[in-house]
Amino acid sequence: MKQVNQVFMTNDYNAFSNIDGNRDINQLHIKRLKESMQTKYISVPIIVNEKLQIIDGQHRFHSAKELNMPIYYIEVDGLGLMDVHRLNSNTKDWNADSFLNGYCKLGKKQYLLYKDFKDRFGFGHNEIQALLSNKTRMGGNRIQDFKDGNFVIVDLNQAIRNAEKITMCSKYYDGYKRRSFIYAMLDLFKRDDYNHLEFLNKLSFQSVKLQDCTTVDQYLILIEEIYNYKRSKTTKVRFY
């Protein structure tokens, strides 16, 4: 057995600091941790770098600080924000918003634009990433690139135009933010035989036909039926 990292203990809370870009403190999480600590304080150490910046355990740190309890910590040289993300990428409380806010705090332009887009249209992260990357399916490394800080917006103006067109459907369909519907619309926007204004016109008096679907293909079948309403046999189109 070999000792690798020593556990230290201190009550000098001012010696520590949060690393720039880390997620915001969740006060509800702090409250729950404090209640647990008051019942029994288990000395689980936080992890810090050589500057005593907290890499893992900032909620444990703040909870112990508020209760005037000692801080147990392990110091590992050379750790930074990317290591914070790696440590937390598989935990349920480190979600896409945590990554987004962290990279925005670091001033990453692509993520600042991403956040503006998200705030403007209110779509979920998967849908926004599809719009901004101009890809309708989840394949590739899109999600991991987002977590690693490497997400790239392909064409912001095109993404805005597509999001606006999808939002226009909200007048007739409450499920316009559903993932499969958005993916279906992105497929259609790439087709030369699809006209969005024509679809909206047809949808305006056939909105009851557009029901929530599970898959992209199911949406394409319904949209095809709505779109072909009153079209002659020779002008009907196939979307699926």
Quick recap of the structure?
The protein is α/β, with parallel strands linked by helices. The protein has helices at 27-39, 58-66, 81-88, 96-105, 109-121, 125-133, 142-148, 156-168, 179-189, 196-204, 216-227; strands at 7-10, 17-18, 46-48, 53-56, 71-75.
Global outline: elongated
- Tell me the fraction of residues in β-strands, as a range: 5-15%
What are the low-pLDDT stretches, counting only 5+ consecutive residues below 50? Answer: none
- As laid out across the biggest beta sheet, the strand order is 1-5-3-4-2
- Give the assembly state of these chains: single chain
Overall radius of gyration: 25 Å
The total count of strands amounts to 5
Q: What is the tally of helical segments?
A: 11
* SSE string: EEHEEHEHHHHHHHHH
What is the overall pLDDT average? 89
N-to-C span: 62 Å
Structural category is alpha/beta
Major sheet description: 5 strands, mixed
- The helix content is 40-55%
Structure, described:
With 240 residues, this protein is an alpha/beta fold. Helix content is 48%, strand content 8%. The protein is built from eleven helices and five strands. The protein has helices at residues 27-39, 58-66, 81-88, 96-105, 109-121, 125-133, 142-148, 156-168, 179-189, 196-204, 216-227, and strands at residues 7-10, 17-18, 46-48, 53-56, 71-75. A hairpin with a 4-residue loop joins strand 3 (46-48) and strand 4 (53-56). Helix 4 packs across helix 5 (109-121), helix 6 runs parallel beside helix 9 and helix 9 crosses helix 11 (216-227). The longest helix is centred in the first third of the chain and has 13 residues, at 27-39. The protein is elongated. The termini are far apart. 24% of the residues are buried.
